[in-house]
């Protein structure tokens, strides 16, 4: 069965996309949803002076604001209703996954199937609203305290501005959360990732123009500029290579007598990706670092010596920031891999259907073997992610290159692109299967 699917995948004609009506509708829905998202990144929050806010953003650029702005697709720089983007939902998902692994009640709820997952998703939505409200209120208070050359960024500061800002930004976050779920269900999957992907890609031309402008101003010479672009291309190629790497665990199925025929006996494999967690660890690590950085960044100089010290230590390129970022990436690599792949469940499934790993006894020894293999490749995957994400951070802090050329943004763009192509490919294979089934039914009728 697996070999037939692989052969069909190899023979899949991308020209058949024009004939796959259902797939075309899904792609058009995704493009329409992303267009709505991009339009929303230009709807400003009421009560903000755009000119003064642009001055403040330019003065405070190069740190937390640029990181926020990258994930929001430029919405923060324009201070729009999608200023927080989908980050509160990602933070809520992290908290719920941690709670599920630690709470027996939530663990039982997760095992209830679709009903349990629906309840957990509902709790995640409630937590998203709560986190978004806290961050939106902190953003409103921070905006009131920020002063530009021509005055405050807020036209009429006060309680009404704070309430309206919280309602507006929380509403935008909830809408993006709903939009991401719609893309996942009615589109081609990866709704949340596609929203972040669309924001980064939409701002890439501006980042390239900014790089060229820095070169024109003399911050880079021609050789350094070419080396930076060569590094970006090399990082992209390295990401593609690692993301397609697999550790294939061979599985043997015994022969069985069924009637007059001998069935089974074929050899299969369990594909374990080198980077099983994908782009999740850098996103989770960034979102968790953004929570304290939000408070520190918007408190300004009035936060005292402690706040100023924390803000300085958590700047990009600083040892504390690099250590926390790398540590969180490694933690989420192992944590998320443990969530998506359970060695004991897979070992039980193999034992149930008569499969075994050659040289390993079925049951618990197979689970231990799978756990050992998974731990080793996850360690390699964690080192890969740490290298990809931290090396550009040093260049960003040293040369002030745009965040869109950082490891996290490149990883998101490349990984989401590969996943989206794989989703489209699987839809095309399903469409070809449907065509074969229809043809076989017509021939039977004849």
The name CATH uses for the topology of the largest domain is: Preprotein translocase SecY subunit
Strand order of the largest sheet: 1-2
Can you identify the CATH superfamily of the largest domain?
SecY subunit domain
Distance between the termini: 27 Å
Oligomer: single chain
CA-based gyration radius: 25 Å
* Overall CATH architecture of the largest domain: Orthogonal Bundle
Series of secondary-structure elements, N-terminal to C-terminal: HHHHHHHEEHHHEEEEHHHHHH
Largest sheet: 2 strands, antiparallel
CATH classification class of the largest domain:
Mainly Alpha
| Whole-number total of structural domains | 2
**Form type:** globular
| Beta strand % | 5-15%
Helix segment count? 16
Overview of the structural elements:
This protein folds into 2 domains: 1-26 and 203-446, Orthogonal Bundle (Preprotein translocase SecY subunit), CATH 1.10.3370.10; 41-187, no CATH class. It is built from 16 helices and 6 strands. The chain is mainly alpha-helical and 446 residues long. 32% of the residues are buried. The longest helix has 39 residues, at 407-445. Residues 1-12 have low confidence and may be disordered. The strands form 3 sheets. Strands 1-2 form a two-stranded antiparallel sheet. A two-stranded antiparallel ribbon has the order 3-6. A hairpin with a 2-residue loop joins strand 4 (255-258) and strand 5 (261-264). The two termini are 27 Å apart.
């Amino acid at each position: 069965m697996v070999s037939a699917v692989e052969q069909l995948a190899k023979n899949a004609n991308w020209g058949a996309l024009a004939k796959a009506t259902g797939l075309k509708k899904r792609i058009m829905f995704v493009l329409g949803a992303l267009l709505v998202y991009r339009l929303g990144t230009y709807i400003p929050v009421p009560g903000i002076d755009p000119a003064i806010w642009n001055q403040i953003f330019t003065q405070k650029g190069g740190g937390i604001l640029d990181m926020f702005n990258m994930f929001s697709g430029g919405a923060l720089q324009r201070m729009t209703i999608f200023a927080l983007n989908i980050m509160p939902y990602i933070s809520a998902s992290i908290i719920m996954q941690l709670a599920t692994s630690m709470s027996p009640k939530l663990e039982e709820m997760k095992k209830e199937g679709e009903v349990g997952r629906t309840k957990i998703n509902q709790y995640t939505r409630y937590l998203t609203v709560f986190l978004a409200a806290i961050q939106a209120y902190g953003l409103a208070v921070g905006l009131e305290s920020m002063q530009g050359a021509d005055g405050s960024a807020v036209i009429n500061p006060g309680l009404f501005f704070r309430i309206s800002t919280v309602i507006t930004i929380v509403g935008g976050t909830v809408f993006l959360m709903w939009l991401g779920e719609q893309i996942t269900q009615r589109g081609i999957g990866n709704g949340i990732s596609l929203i972040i992907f669309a924001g980064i890609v939409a701002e890439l031309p501006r980042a390239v123009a900014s790089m060229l402008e820095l070169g024109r101003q003399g911050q880079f010479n021609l050789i350094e500029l070419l080396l930076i672009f060569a590094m970006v291309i090399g990082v992209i190629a390295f990401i593609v290579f690692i993301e397609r790497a697999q550790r294939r665990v061979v599985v043997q199925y015994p022969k069985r007598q069924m009637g007059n025929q001998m069935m089974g006996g074929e050899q299969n494999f369990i594909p374990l990706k080198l980077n099983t967690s994908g782009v999740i660890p850098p996103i989770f690590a960034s979102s968790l670092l953004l929570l304290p950085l939000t408070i520190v960044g918007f408190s300004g100089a009035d936060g005292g010596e402690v706040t100023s010290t924390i803000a300085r230590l958590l700047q990009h390129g600083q040892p504390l920031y690099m250590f926390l970022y790398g540590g969180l990436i490694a933690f989420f690599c192992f944590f998320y891999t443990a969530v998506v792949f359970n060695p004991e469940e897979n070992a039980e499934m193999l034992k149930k259907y008569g499969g075994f790993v050659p040289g390993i006894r079925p049951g618990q020894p197979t689970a231990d073997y799978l756990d050992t293999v998974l731990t080793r490749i996850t360690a390699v995957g964690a080192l890969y992610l740490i290298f990809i994400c931290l090396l550009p951070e040093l260049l960003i802090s040293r040369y002030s290159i745009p965040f869109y050329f950082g490891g996290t943004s490149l990883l998101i763009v490349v990984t989401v692109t590969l996943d989206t192509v794989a989703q489209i490919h699987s839809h095309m294979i399903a469409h070809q299967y449907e065509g074969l089934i229809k043809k076989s039914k017509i021939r039977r009728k004849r």
